[in-house]
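Example 3.2
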Amino acid sequence: MSISTAVFDLGGTLIKETAFYPEQARRFLLSRATASDSPGEEELKEFDERVFRDMLERRERSGLDFQLTQYLNLLQASLGIRLEGDPDEIAFRCWLRQHEPRVEDGAVECLRQLRSSGVRMGLLSNTVLSRKTIQLLMEEFGILDFFDAIVCSSEVAYRKPNSLTYKAVLALLHAEAAQSAMVGDNLEVDIAGAASLGMTTVWYNPEDHPASEIKPDHIVADLRSVPRVLGVC
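Structure, written as tokens:
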């Protein structure tokens, strides 16, 4: 059966985080804070490391997600400050400063080829960023307009590889699993869950990691190879 729909993971597949600079994100937050007694960087760091770390640990244990904007609300209430600006825009700017992301090599060419071949595309991401923040990030790197549907774990609560997440994006795309492909960089998170529904799976493995007991239908080291292995070009 031919592929009519392709679903992509975001982080590690279409966009790569090249750094981890939490101090840059904290300085940005302080620059947006309005209060006569705004916290210093050390106070913000202590809160960040204690509360955000706890939220991440609970996320891993439960398999359920939260939104970064919820953390920002807690931060404002706990430290008695107000952050000037739209919460999703603030989250977006924090993410850029903390992770210095860039678009993966070959991503735009891959998406353009699939679009020109008539393939509908969806995004399925495990992320604490809201859908609006993800859209800002995708727009920043020129890939937003390729997508017909976006599902973020922060908004549906469940995370990949839970089958409900794949079903959610397929429903938005009005697509059947048997005619759809999943492209992602994580065998356990992206590939196994999609395979359980009968989707064609493409493991993006640019660093030639060893395979495991999870067997994708296709393995590519370059995203430009995706349209070819899916037989749509």
